[in-house]
Amino acid sequence: GQKTCLHLHGVFPYIYVPYDGCGQQLERHLRQLAFSIDRALNVALGNPSSSIQHVFKVSLVSGTPFYGYHEKEQQFMKIYLYNPLMVKRVCELLQGGAIMNKSYQPHEAHLPYLLQLFIDYNLYGMNLINLASIKFRKARRKDLKKKKKKYIYIYIAPYTQVGRNPGLQSIWEDEKQRRREKNESSQIEPPESQVIDRGFMQATDSEKVFKKRLKEILKQNDFSV
Questions:
Q1: What is the DSSP letter of 3?
Q2: What is the pLDDT of residues 7-47, one digit of tens each?
Q3: Any residues with CB less than 8 A from the CB of 95 and at least 6 apart, and which?
Q4: What is 27-95 written as a DSSP string?
Q5: What residues pair up with 136 in beta bridges, in sequence order?
Q6: How far apart are CA 49 and CA 56, in angstroms?
Q7: What is the CATH number of domain 14-113?
Q8: 10 Å Cβ neighbour count for 153?
Q9: Exposed, middle or buried, 113 (CB in 10 Å: 0-12/13-18/19+)?
Q10: Which of 26, 116, 121, 171 has its CA 20 to 30 A from that of 17?
Q11: Which sequence spans correspond to the domains of the chain?
């Protein structure tokens, strides 16, 4: 097929930090956080008088914290940045207490920008991507004069829907079809190691200690055991 250079707009790198509902108005607090990040980052980059904006926006979302066990969802501030290269520096400032004189624990800051994009839209390499709306760019004259390879340049406008690919479901369907073609059952069953009866296994001393400690922690937090 025709080779394509796809320019995807409106997809920003982001991180999460916990929101503790510090008593201020929500919108005001989110604006203050964005302003504080911009100011601290400009100072860290050696331009304290700069007015460059690094934060695209900050929004309030809900989710289950990655660290530790949590029974209910909690609120987080989702910080969108313009430049993926600034994510690490912003995390250092958040953890160091340079933002609003408070230390924040960033979440999902370890994910590279492209991997974050692939995860959010369920994309994976060497596969198709479904797009709701596209725009084509005409080839420039200097590209034609230099006889560059012919690519179709496609632009995706901001906030255009990127279709989610079937992901693992398509892999399972391919495996079922392969089995049908070989006149085998298309029903994928678990391996014998998961269904075999292994009988009674004697608990080790360390297992008994950890079970006892777990029950104590559950009782302290009013969980039934």
A1: -
A2: 888 899 999 999 987 667 899 999 999 999 999 999 999 99
A3: 103, 104, 105, 106
A4: HHHHHHHHHHHHHHHHHHTT-TT-----EEEEEEEEE--SSS--SS-EEEEEEEES-GGGHHHHHHHHH
A5: 154
A6: 20
A7: 3.30.70
A8: 15
A9: middle
A10: 121
A11: 14-113
